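Task: encode each sequence below as structure tokens.

Item 1
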Amino acid sequence: MIRLRYLLTASTVVAASLLTAVLATAPAEAAGKSWGKLYARDDSGKLARAYGDFANNGGVYATIGANWDDLRRSDHNPVYVEAEFFFLKNGKWESAGTTQTPRTDTSASGSMSRKLRHDAHAARAVIKVCVDRAHWSDICSPQAVVSFSY
């Protein structure tokens, strides 16, 4: 019985060391490119803020990671992040559509993705943070443009 327990323990150690070796040699994904901090403003100051990154997500998706804040929670106008995705094909940027995050009147974080196109070799995102105003045009920040090749 002591010998069987030793064999099980030894095999567990071997399995754990093999798993550690596999995890240690797995290629790491490159960190996403930051798109900095964006602010939506009006004459009275900053209304909304957003920041995040844009990355090649496992060679499958172009993914925007975003954090956004309503800096004027008391005005009841929620904020959101909007992004348009593009892919570079034959020397021309082609739109892959626009998407928005959920609206919030506090703080939130999330992601937006598009599948990488096999016939393209670069991805781009044009990103802005906006304040949703029910009966008026939304107030948006200047756009951040970030891209990567793949």
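Item 2
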Amino acid sequence: MDVRETNRRVIEQFRAGRPVEGMHRDRLVLLTTAGRQTGRPHTTPMMFHRDDDVLLVVASNIGAPQHPDWYLNLVVDPAVDIEIDGERYPGAAEALEGDRREETWAMLTDTYPFFADHETRTERTIPVVALRRS
């Protein structure tokens, strides 16, 4: 599977307002981060969980040993662009830490058990990120 091609297709379908092949459109957010080396924008489609006015995203990388690029980018620059529900707006990303991360992770793995499966595949702590409108 070509992840870049899949992401390109998902982004195109999402922005066109069409159904997103193989995914639940109402659970997708497009997150644009600045590349940590180039500063160029990089857009990644991902699943989110809404918690009041905060969107929670998980940097599971399907249990890979390394964090996903989008997460490494926002660690360097937490200013992001968020696209959801036909709207695009600037946002700020915050990796949750300590008890807050643990409580949120427990809720997310209970709600979406596949994240617990991702956790079994890696030795790293999987980051949970809160996205807020700036």
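Check on item 2: The chain is about 30% helix and 30% strand. The mean pLDDT is 95.
End of task.
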